[in-house]
Amino acid sequence: MTQVWQCITADFKQRTRQQSFVVTLLAMSVLTLLFFPSPDAHYQTLVINGYRGIYNSAWLGVCLAMLNVLFLPIICFYLVKNALELDRQSMTGELIAATPISKLTFLLAKWCTSVLILVSIVLVMLLSSILIQIYYGESYQINLWALIWPQVVFVLPILLTIAAIAIMFESIEWLKGGLGNVVYFFLWIGSIVQTIESMSGIGALLDHLDAEVAERFPLQQGDTNIGVSITNAADEINTFVWQGIEPTIASLWGALPLLFICLSCLALAFIFFDRFSKNSTPENKQSSWLNFTLKARVTDLLDIFFVALTKHFSFTRLLRLELKLILKGHSVYWFFGLLVLNIFQLFISQDLLVSLVLPISWLWCVLVISQLGQLEKQANTVELVTYSKQSSILQSLACYCAASILLVLASMGSFIRFTGSAEWLLLVQLIIAISFTVSLAYFCGAFTGTKRMFEVLYPALWYIGPIQTALYVDFFGVNSQASWQAGVPYYFVAISISLLMLTVSAKSTR
After folding, report:
1. In this structure, are residues 57 and 141 in contact, taking their beta carbons and an 8 Å threshold?
2. Per-residue pLDDT at 199 exceeds 50
3. CB–CB of 158/258 below 8 Å?
4. Under a CB-based contact definition with an 8 Å cutoff, are residues 88 and 275 in contact?
5. Taking 50 as the threshold, does the pLDDT of residue 380 lie above it?
6. Distance, CA of 258 to CA of 157 (rounded, Å)
7. Average pLDDT over residues 157-161
8. Angle 330-93-325 (CA atoms, 0-180°, nearest 5)?
């Protein structure tokens, strides 16, 4: 037990002394303020049959718990999915592997530290909600129990599970990188529906609130919404005084499935964790026959062609090298998947192409273009790039163009379809979407120095915009006519140019 406590103390100090931890606490305080909009705001977060409770402790506690259950899994997972990676980056993994500490003790300490970090975030949100209650002044009576118990009953099991899943993802080789970030995002999307529809926990509490409002205001007909909903100026949200409820045994039973998932993830982490025993230098594995044939026959021939095509100008030579650097190390099966998606783009209906297949083709490239902005660091070419004769602006434009070419190749079937059918507006929107995606990837990589921000942000925009067709987030323009009428493409052009200029200027000053 002494070893566990010592590991927790050391790890907690290391992770909380980082500047990003303070920034996260401030960001969560702001997010809490957004959770509870002012009475005259144009959006609401929890509306039951057209009503919301006044901002007293009972309503704030339950509302905060509901919104935390929905949104903290996506926020906190990426925050604590670095427990093992920090030791790899600080080169202390080998020292830990040489100590007598066991795998179980080490993983348990890492999990406890992650839980403490997440609990500290919820505590900051609780303190912020108390200040919000006093600021809005709809009720000045502070009831700490009404604020705290929903977080303990509903949110704490979620935090335990998030910390365990993050440790498991870091322990499994193919999930610890960018693929794991994308996989978890879609797991979160699926878990939202399960959480709301479940008959225990938050789902049962929401049903109780719905039934109580319907009983107290039987003549009122309105929408029930949990999440963020935009309200019109004409829509009036009525308020009522809600005194809260006490936790029941049924609420506690609802946490059992989450605790089971938590223990299962910790067990899997214990099985797959290598205790930093593997060599950090990748081994030269035997290439498959398909890989060898493609490299020897196809890739080399294409390389000869591109060398002949680009050798006359310094920019085109730099562009060719940037494109090779982006595509370096990717499996032949990834290229086959891109080819299959392009074939689908040629033969399916246009509606299905724009709304599903084309977005999937770009999602296929997320882990490739997320390298933008920190390719030099990843490929250990920072010194070569710094002291090269090419200007930083030219290097940035070459990298930007290389990623754009990749997305053009991923959308080649769509380009052929739109050009052949004279769908010029769709073609322009496709070019704008490519520009926005590359600019966003380049900006995220350059300013954070990691791939994680883009791998988290882009799937969220991808899901809300093209898949759910939210008009002002739909950078693909799935509803093309409505998109042009609302001027959405012009907004994304401006955003793309702004992000690119910020990135280029930042890299020029370094």
Report:
1. yes
2. no
3. yes
4. no
5. yes
6. 6
7. 91
8. 20
pLDDT digits (tens, 9 = 90+) for 432-474: 999 999 999 999 888 887 788 888 888 888 888 888 878 888 8
Residue 192 CB contacts under 8 Å (≥ 6 apart), including other chains: 70
147-152: long-range contacts at Cβ-Cβ below 8 A with a sequence spacing of 24 or more? 147/57, 147/60, 147/61, 147/64, 148/61, 149/61, 149/246, 149/247, 150/61, 150/62, 150/64, 150/65, 151/61, 151/64, 151/65, 151/68, 151/122, 151/126
- Residue in the structure block whose two tokens are 């609130």: 209
The better pLDDT of the pair 232, 172 is held by 172
Per the listing, tokens 């505590």 go with: 123
pTM: 0.78
Q: Name, in order, each residue with C-beta under 8 angstroms of 23's C-beta and a sequence gap of 6 or more.
A: none
| pLDDT, tens digit (0-9, with 9 covering 90-100), for 217-241 | 776 666 666 666 666 655 567 788 8
Which residue in 111, 106, 117, 90 sits closest to 12, CA to CA?
117
Query: Rounded CA gap, 12 and 208, in Å?
Result: 39
Average pLDDT value for the chain: 81
Residue 390 structure tokens? 């090419």
Strand 51-53 versus strand 225-230 pairing type? unpaired
Is residue 56 within 8 A of residue 241, CB to CB? The reply is yes
* Contact between 330 and 409 (Cβ < 8 Å): no
Which run of H or of E encompasses 412? helix 412-420
Radius of gyration in angstroms for the set of CA atoms belonging to the chain, rounded to a whole number: 26
Query: For helices 156-171 and 178-197, what crossing angle results, to 10°?
Result: 150
- Helix, strand, or coil (residue 421): coil
Task: Dig out the tokens for 130 from the structure.
Answer: 């108390």
Alpha-carbon distance of 484 to 491, in angstroms, equals 10
Residue 288 DSSP class: P
